[in-house]
Amino acid sequence: MIKQKTCYLKALHLAPSYSVAHNNLGNVYLRKGREFYVLAIRHFKMAIELKPTYAEACLNLGNTYPIVNDKIKMSTYLSCSLD
Fold first, then answer.
1. pLDDT single digits (tens) 26-77
2. How far apart are CA 3 and CA 8, in angstroms?
3. Cβ burial 42-79 (10 Å sphere, 16+ → b, else e)
4. 57 Cβ contact partners less than 8 Å away, ≥ 6 residues apart
């Protein structure tokens, strides 16, 4: 997981607007545990901001919100993933 994180951070250093790297880095942070959920959410949101039609990032963000007890945002982003 450390190697993945390093690779995605390098990719973002080279191409800050690479939405796939933001989404994947969000997944890395999500797997690291509760203290990293804020970072996961930040990167999923960035991926969506860069590519609003990025269904996978919407799904990942929507699936993250129940973990932090925000069911309203969960339904918003899960709906976004279906568009």
1. 999 999 998 999 999 999 999 999 999 999 998 899 888 777 776 667 667 6
2. 9
3. ebbbbbbebbeebebbbbbbbebbeeeeeeeebeebbe
4. 19, 22, 23, 26, 44, 47, 48, 51
- H runs (alpha helix) in 15-70: 19-32, 37-50, 55-64
Q: How far apart are CA 73 and CA 44, in angstroms?
A: 13
12, 22 Cβ separation under 8 angstroms:
yes
Q: Which domains does the chain have, with CATH numbers?
A: 2-82 (1.25.40.10)
Tokens at residue 44, please? Answer: 């999923």
